[in-house]
Specification:
The protein is mainly beta and 253 residues long. The chain has one domain. It contains one helix and 13 strands, in the order E-E-E-E-E-E-E-H-E-E-E-E-E-E. It is elongated.
Amino acid sequence: MVQALKVRLSDGRVVNPSDWTSAPLYTTVEIATGALQPLPGFSFGVGGEVPGSPGLRTANHRDTNMQGAGSILAENEELLLFALQIELYQILGSANDQAFMVSPPQDAWAPDAPEVSATNLMAIQRSTLVRLKIANTKDYGVMPISFHGAGMGIHRTTGAMRSSGSAYARGVLLAYNGGVSVGDSREYATPHHVGPGEAFEAALEFPYGQVIEPLSQVAGSTVAANPLNFGTDANARVRATISAIGPRRRPVA
C-alpha cells in the first residue's frame, strides 16, 4: 500500500497529510430572551467566557476546542471551512426545574430540556443571522441561521409526548435546526481558507435587537407576547453549538 507522507503545494510549502483531520472546531453561545448583542462564536478558548450565558460562565471542553484565547486560529493549525453546522438545545436556569418552563399561563407546549419548542426555534430562525468573518477583512457570508443546518443529532418523533413540567398533562411540539443526516448540511460552493494565526469568527446577530415573539400564544392567555418564551425561568437559554466542518490541520506542537 502506498502512503503519502509529504505533499509539496504549488506555493512551495510541504505538508504532511497525516497532520490533517476531519474533526471539527466547535464553539458555543447562548441565546436569551430580551435585548441581545451579537454573540461571537470561536471568540474564546477553554477558561474563557461563554457569550450570552448567565453571569458569563467559564467555558469548558464541551463548550469549545479552540486553542489559546480564541478569536484567532492557533499558529499550529489551519482550516478549510466547507460548512457551519449549528445545533440548538434548551438549557434550564439554576433552579433546574422544568415547571418553570410551563408555568401557567405561559407556554403549554414547552418540552422537557434539552428539547426546544417549535415556536421558540422558529422565532430564533426568523430573527437570527450568522456572520462569518475571516482575517477581519470582509464578511464571507451573512445568512439566516436556518441556512446552517445541524446535520447531526438524533431522529425524534413527537407522537403523544407530554412534558414533565406539566405533570404530563400538556402536549408538546418539538423542532430542530435542520435534519440529522450529514446530507442535510448545506456546504459552501468553495471552501473558505483560515490560515495559521488568522482571525476567525462566526457570530449570531439579531437585526431586530432580540429574538421576536413566538408565532402563536396560548389561547386566552393574559400574558403579553414575549420574545423567547421561557416561562418564569429567567436564566433559561437556547444553547447553540457551532461546528466548523472541513479538513483541519491539527495542532502538531
